[in-house]
Design goal:
177 residues; mainly alpha
């Protein structure tokens, strides 16, 4: 069980990073992605109605906690990045670095807690299916982003980023950086 948790924590940490990116994009893309993720995961888990209700309750709490932790990590990262760019003292940079490391550790703890919470409403097999489904969804999202062209569609016509700024679009971030 600990192996499941360790592997899942690493997989979900990457998903959290992707979610932070999605929060900065226009048109409610994060909400659309989250709805897509939840639909995909539920279909992959093959839950009955009761299991789905319980899973959704746990998932809503877990997602809220993850979002808060991720936002704190993002803030710590921005502070660290700014300290470096502004040429702050070693002492100030160290303080920012420690805050960032603490925030990342908190995210990892939340991941472990999340799988314990999911484990209360899912069997071990369904918890494993959750881990696989989350990873597949994350990989599909990255694939769509990276294969997108200027209109946001990938090579096979699938929808990439809604704003059409896929990798080949080279238009940069929405905030102009």
């Amino acid at each position: 069980m600990k192996t499941y948790i360790a592997v899942a924590a690493a997989a979900i940490a990457v998903l959290i990073s992707f979610e932070g990116y999605a929060q900065r994009t226009p048109d409610g893309w994060k909400q659309k992605m989250e709805q897509g993720r939840l639909s995909y995961v539920i279909s992959e888990l093959k839950l009955d109605e009761k299991e789905e209700r319980e899973f959704r309750k746990v998932d809503a709490k877990v997602s809220e906690t993850k979002d808060k932790a991720f936002n704190a990590t993002g803030e710590a990262f921005r502070n660290l990045d700014l300290a470096i760019k502004e040429g702050k003292s070693e002492k100030q940079i160290k303080k920012c670095l420690e805050a960032y490391i603490d925030a990342k550790e908190k995210c990892n703890e939340i991941e472990e807690d999340a799988f314990e919470a999911y484990g209360k409403v899912l069997s071990d097999e369904k918890l494993a299916r959750l881990i696989v489904a989350e990873e597949r969804f994350r990989r599909n999202m990255f694939r769509q982003m990276h294969s997108g062209n200027r209109d946001g569609r990938g090579k096979s016509g699938e929808q990439g980023r809604p704003d059409g700024q896929g990798r080949s679009g080279c238009q940069g971030r929405p905030d102009g950086r």
